Amino acid sequence: MKILVTGAAGFIGYFVSKSLLDKGHTVIGLDNINDYYDVDLKYDRLKQLGIAPKEAEIFEKEVHSKNHPGFSFVRMALEDREGLPQLFERHAFDKVCNLAAQAGVRYSLENPEAYIDSNLVGFLNILECCRNYKVKHLVYASSSSVYGLNEKIPFETTDSVDHPVSLYAATKKSNELMAHAYSHLYGFKSTGLRFFTVYGPWGRPDMAMFLFTDAIMNNKPLKVFNSGKLERDFTYIDDITEGVVRILETPTNENEPKKDLYKVYNIGNSKSVKLMDFITAIEESLQQTAQKQMLPMQPGDVEKTWANVDDLIQDFDYRPNTPIKLGVQRFIDWYKSYYKELAK
């Protein structure tokens, strides 16, 4: 298939692109490479896919990979109402995997406009292009943050998600509603994936795994919010990637009833881990002790996440299952190797 992967220079987008290429698909990667976090990390991910940083810097120029014949990259924002339709017209995508978004719960308190531009305006442009250029299936990133103040554990996709506690969460819930409307009106399949705290090699520097490892290794205070009384369904990147790719590769049924065109799934490890246990796993792997700085609860945060993935198992015979200790060790191995190379 020919598949558009947006957010291809991002954490999940990089791994999904690589997996699809390894399976023989043609992938066009799109990313605006914004400076929400270190752009060098984004360029280095693209470098793994055969795209040189200097080539990736140029907006709207399609660059072909040097070591993956099936991959090309375009630097473009989802908000580009002229460039995006031209890209869809040029390539006639079979499927679209929309992983591009302005990420981060806490940053949405500081820069709300970025979330409206990318997550709402940009997502509308994706939906319009899918409608106008006959895309068979749109798979897009939602988030566990949509559950907000939901107190029922574990979280199920049938739960009410009407009480978001951050603008980021509100935009992700909006994406699900927008996709539902477009699937109903225009008859194309859409699948939303509520990711639960993804971690692993090449991860984002603003996420817990990266922040904790960096603090411990460099003998800096480690910020522990809500005095450590938090629990997260930490999900390893390989499990997330396998789930996304399995859904993308599932054949679409052109005669599928309208009510079945729209789906939402949780993708999580289906296990809630105490934050302090997660920190302990990092300490044990590094053989160092963290200098913990206990802080109050952050605005927009929630105390506990835990995914029920029964729907994922039933429909795709797939359950994420990487143990925390193994995932943590793999991240730390990558972290040491990556920053050792940068130090040369």
UniProtKB/TrEMBL annotation:
Domain NAD-dependent epimerase/dehydratase: 3-268
Keywords of this entry: NAD
Coiled-coil ranges per UniProt: none
InterPro entries for the chain: Epimerase_deHydtase (IPR001509), NAD(P)-bd_dom_sf (IPR036291)
Protein's name in the database: NAD-dependent epimerase
Species annotation: Maribacter flavus
